[in-house]
Amino acid sequence: MASVRSVTRFLLGKNIFNNNLVAPTSNANFVKFYSAAPAYENIKIDVVGSKKNVGLIQLNRPKALNALCKPLFVELGKAVTDFDSDNSISAIIITGNEKAFAAGADIKEMQNNTYSDNVRAGFLREWEDISNCGKPIIAAVNGFALGGGCELAMLCDIIYAGEKAKFGQPEINIGTIPGAGGTQRLPRYVGKSKAMEIVLTGNFIDAYEAEKMGLVSRVFPVEKLLEETIKLAERIGTHSPLIVKLAKQAVNQAYETQLKAGLQFEKSIFYGTFATADRREGMTAFVEKRSPNFKNE
Ligand code: CO8
Questions:
Q1: Which pTM was predicted?
Q2: One domain for residues 175 and 283
Q3: Within this chain, do residues 9 and 117 fall inside the same structural domain, yes or no?
Q4: Which of 124, 216, 258, 285 has minimal Cβ neighbours within 10 Å of its Cβ?
């Protein structure tokens, strides 16, 4: 089966994800804009589409199933912010690889966090770079989109999925709760009962169930996903960037009225789980590859 990278290369010619920096020779402004960009370690970026107006970001920690460590999120926020302020870019795509879009927050990184650490550092504040983006962001999800990975997809404006994608909020298995919008955005997408089932069981749902629930707008064969997502971004790119931005703001208003209070509430509870023994046990058990022994404390 073709990888995301080979499919993109096939579709779009040279220079796709070849370098950590973008250097499409056909777009002088872009080269100029990104000539001073940092060399990314956890993501790859490129500019794609026949008009070179689609910013493509690939999460690139395949060995950790694209677990969302802080350095990855800092880079992702920077790439999104840069594409957002580049006038030649109409829409942005975030994707992973065939096995994982992202398997969640990096459990190993946050395993020893305390409640005070989270509050002091404003844990997850980098996520705001994604929600502050004025341009449309499309998630192209193949493989696992779990925990923070599912939340990242939901932060995007449209989710397209490959038919083997799996979505879930399995934080309950490791003694915590979703901390980047899962408890607030998921019910808005799929309704309370289904959201409760997903959050309280930690069970995964497949791409077709996710489409039926309204979480995903379309499902494609794995090897067609990126091609179709680029087509969608190009179609959006045929419209006025200003009106696209306003339309995005307006649709978001439907979701975001009252969302802020919910997110603040969610964050305080998420942080609070780091004061519990069960959260520590859950993450430690994951890292030690054993079943957790929860004590209800
Ligand atoms: N964090 C850190 N490492 C991970 C993660 C993760 N979330 N997921 C997978 N990995 C690592 C594994 O530890 C393993 O590393 P190693 O080879 O060094 O042992 C490697 O990726 C491959 O994983 P597996 O061997 O487990 O692969 P499998 O195919 O057997 O299983 C699964 C795939 C089912 C996806 C499994 O890896 C899994 O259950 N992962 C954890 C999923 C999870 O619980 N996600 C939620 C995390 S908590 C969270 O997201 C809180 C959100 C808070 C806000 C967001 C902040 C960014």
A1: 0.86
A2: no
A3: yes
A4: 258
Output the six-digit token pair for 243: 């009106």
Closest CA to 136 of 240, 5, 261, 256: 240
For 156, which DSSP code? S
Residue 188 is part of which domain span?
4-236
What is the CB < 6 Å shell around ligand 1?
64-65, 67-68, 103-108, 124, 144, 146-148, 151, 170-171, 173-174, 178-180
Residue 254 has pLDDT above 90, yes or no: no
pLDDT in tens, 63-81: 999 999 999 999 999 999 9
* Residue that is written with structure tokens 């990126």 in the block: 226
Q: Is residue 81 part of a domain?
A: yes
Task: For Cα atoms 81, 241, 88, give the angle at the middle one, nearest 5 degrees.
Answer: 60
**55 plus 77 within the same structural domain:** yes
User: Residue 269 Cα, ligand 1 centroid: separation in angstroms?
Assistant: 22
Residue 288 pLDDT greater than 50, yes or no: yes
Supply the pLDDT for residue 11: 39
Say yes or no: 14 and 155 in one domain. yes
Specify the amino acid at residue 285. Answer: A
Quick check: is 188 in a domain? yes
